[in-house]
Every structure is written in structure tokens, then in C-alpha cells.
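Hey L., structure's done. Input below.
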Amino acid sequence: MKILFLLLFLSVSSPEDANSTQNLDFWISQLKSSSIDLQINALEKLPEINNPKATPDIIESLQSPNAEIRYYAAVALAKLPTHEGLAALADRLVVEKDVYVKSEINRSIRKLKDYFDQLEKQKQSESDGKKK
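Output:
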């Protein structure tokens, strides 16, 4: 019975994983599009997939000559928390000229710092609980 359940679980989860990878690849390819609308759409969808493999491509979008793309890249990085994303936002903040993008980068940095602080507190709390 356990083997049957395991086989059923694997058969159900594998296509989902494949779809997730296909979706990731598709949306990353949209970031390379010449269409600003497609790039923005990809920056909105990639965090929903919740795969940190998208982070380098989103970070690359922070270098776009288009301020709107940089804005949405900052939003996306805040929704897909990684230390690499936080570092890239901090680097971009130094050189960003657009006031709206700069404001969003600041907001995203605060959001990521809060997230990582909470994560650290949770780990510390769990560690303290194990010591008792």
C-alpha cells in the first residue's frame, strides 16, 4: 500500500515540476523580449513561480535602460527573497537616478531586510527552544 501511494505521489508531482520548469523558462525568455510589456509581465509572473533560479535574470533587469523595467525588477526581487537580490538592490540604489525607481528600491530593500530579520529571529527562537 505504501509503495502504491509513493508511486501515485511521484506520478502526480513530476508533471507539476516539469510545468514549473517550463513556466520558469518561458517567463525568463520573456525578460529577453524587446517588448516592455512582455518584460513587465514576466517580472510580475516570475515571483509567483517562487523559484530562486529566476533571481539572476531579474537582477539583470535592474540594469535596463527603461525605468519602468527597473521598477518592476525591484518589486519582483522583494517578492522573491534572496540575499543576492538584496545585494543587487543595494548596488543599484547607489547609481539609480529615477526618483520613483529609487523609492521602490528603498521599499524593496526594507521589505527584504525585514524578511531576513524575521527569519533570523525564528531560527534563533527555534535554537533557543532546542537548548531547553
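The longest helix spans residues 99-131. Residues 1-18 have pLDDT under 50 and may be disordered.

-- N.
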